[in-house]
């Protein structure tokens, strides 16, 4: 046993043991295999021992471990050098490094957790806010899976009833028109719709929001980034064109991870360096969830600000959701006037004074509204593939209801219920392909 040869000795299940972890080197070879470790266990006195670290060793016997297999956990001090030595010694004794997500994958394959719970582990590790972490924890505890399994079970039960109705089609009772199937389909519709709504909130919380600030030089873009980040993240001067590259900062906006990117000013007559900065600015903009277009309220207008963007990237305002920000309203002396909020060609305008701190609370609330933040947190976390599966299941249920009301085609209704059930099962991994599993677990961090 590798742990025993490292110095752990004999371990009892679920009992922590204090150990001196050692490296055992011989004159003949510096590397050992696991088999050689056993063959040499009787000749340990002939090997030179060197203590690597002291710590705890715990043995979890199957099936009472995270993976459902025999697992030894070693807890050592946090020195990167020491940990590397322990790993190197374990590898020399026959161990190998875990593949990305391998522990979670083994737990899934051994029935310890379902696929949605396995994904929640990665989501918990990657969570960018407390709210996202709490939502991922709820999914890890099975909240999402419980809802999905409940809908899936009702779907398969209804399918059985429909197939039974087909078998008794010659009887006097018309099961397809007795109202039970229609009522059950509508209940499933509502349940999937509610699950989708909660899932989209959980997905947004998990993915966060990407904001990019565009505008002419010296409009206040860097000052806005500094305001949201709560620090002087970007250099701010009275000299136009200070920012030459993109600069991003991730903030916690009431539980939502928001990445805000400051960009180089869109100069009408750029030099060679500014052209590179503008190209990067526009590249960032096309990948954003939302765009903040800033302009000087006293020297510029919403129309000219949008025209400036259109000069470099035609149609960008049609591709992205945009909020207009009219900055420096303090210079006009109209701090509480018409710049509080407004509209330009269906786009919302918020007046701000970063110097005076005016209008920023309204803008912040607007961003929360865009992100869909409410007073309550989502009941679970969800991923894009979960949303797609729920949407597909919803389409099959909708089609089934349409077939019932129009043609009462029992065989077709049963098929739609079967397809919807398959989509629901793919969320928890009851039905999944090897390609899907490989894609999911390869995105995990190493070993989790």
Keyphrases for this structure?
single chain, about 450 residues, alpha/beta, Gyrase A, domain 2, Rossmann fold, three-stranded antiparallel β-sheet, about 45% helix
Note down, in words, how this protein is organized:
The protein is α/β, with parallel strands linked by helices. The chain has two domains: 2-97, Probable tRNA modification gtpase trme, domain 1 (Gyrase A, domain 2, 2-Layer Sandwich); 115-429, Rossmann fold (3-Layer(aba) Sandwich). It has 16 helices and ten strands. Strands 5-6-4-7-8-10-9 form a seven-stranded mixed β-sheet, sandwiched between helices. The protein has a three-stranded antiparallel β-sheet with strand order 1-2-3. Helix 4 packs antiparallel against helix 5 (115-126), helix 7 (143-167) runs antiparallel to helix 8 (180-207) and helix 8 (180-207) packs antiparallel against helix 14 (384-406). The protein is flat and about 80 Å long.
């Amino acid at each position: 046993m590798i742990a025993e040869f490292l110095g752990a000795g004999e371990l009892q299940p679920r009992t922590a043991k204090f150990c001196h972890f050692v490296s055992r080197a011989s004159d003949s070879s510096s590397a050992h295999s696991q088999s050689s470790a056993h063959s040499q266990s009787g000749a340990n006195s002939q090997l030179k021992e060197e203590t690597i670290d002291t710590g705890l060793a715990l043995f979890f016997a199957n099936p009472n471990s995270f993976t459902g297999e025999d697992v030894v956990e070693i807890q050592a001090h946090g020195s990167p050098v020491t940990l590397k030595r322990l790993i190197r010694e374990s590898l020399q004794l026959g161990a190998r490094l875990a593949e990305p997500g391998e522990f979670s994958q083994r737990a899934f394959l051994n029935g310890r957790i379902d696929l949605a719970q396995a994904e929640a582990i990665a989501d918990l590790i990657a969570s960018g806010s407390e709210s996202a972490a709490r939502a991922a924890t709820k999914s890890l505890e099975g909240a999402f899976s419980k809802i999905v399994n409940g809908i899936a079970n009702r779907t398969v039960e209804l399918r059985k009833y429909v197939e039974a109705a087909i078998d008794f089609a010659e009887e006097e009772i018309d099961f397809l028109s007795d109202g039970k199937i229609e009522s059950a389909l509508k209940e499933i519709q509502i349940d999937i719709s509610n699950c989708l709504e909660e899932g989209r909130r959980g997905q947004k919380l998990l993915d966060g929001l990407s904001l990019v600030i565009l505008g002419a030089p010296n409009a206040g873009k860097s000052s806005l980034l500094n305001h949201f980040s709560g620090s002087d993240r970007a250099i701010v001067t009275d000299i136009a064109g200070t920012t030459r590259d993109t600069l991003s900062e991730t903030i916690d906006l009431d539980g939502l991870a928001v990445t805000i990117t400051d960009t180089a000013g869109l100069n009408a007559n750029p030099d060679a360096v500014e052209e590179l900065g503008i190209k990067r600015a526009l590249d960032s903009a096309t990948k954003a969830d939302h765009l903040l277009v800033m302009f000087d309220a006293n020297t510029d207008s919403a129309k000219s600000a949008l025209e400036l963007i259109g000069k470099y990237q035609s149609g960008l305002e049609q591709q992205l959701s945009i909020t207009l920000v009219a900055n420096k309203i303090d210079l006009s002396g109209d701090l509480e006037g018409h710049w509080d909020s407004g509209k330009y060609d269906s786009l919302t305008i918020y007046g701000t004074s970063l110097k005076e701190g005016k209008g920023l609370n309204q803008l912040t609330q607007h961003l929360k509204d865009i992100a869909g933040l409410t007073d309550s947190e989502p009941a679970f976390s969800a991923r894009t593939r979960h949303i797609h599966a729920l949407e597909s299941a919803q389409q099959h249920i909708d089609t089934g209801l349409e077939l019932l009301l129009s043609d009462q085609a029992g065989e077709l209704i049963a098929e739609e219920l079967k397809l919807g059930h398959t989509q629901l099962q793919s969320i928890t991994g009851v039905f999944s392909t090897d390609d899907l599993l490989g894609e999911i677990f390869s995105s995990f961090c190493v070993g989790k």
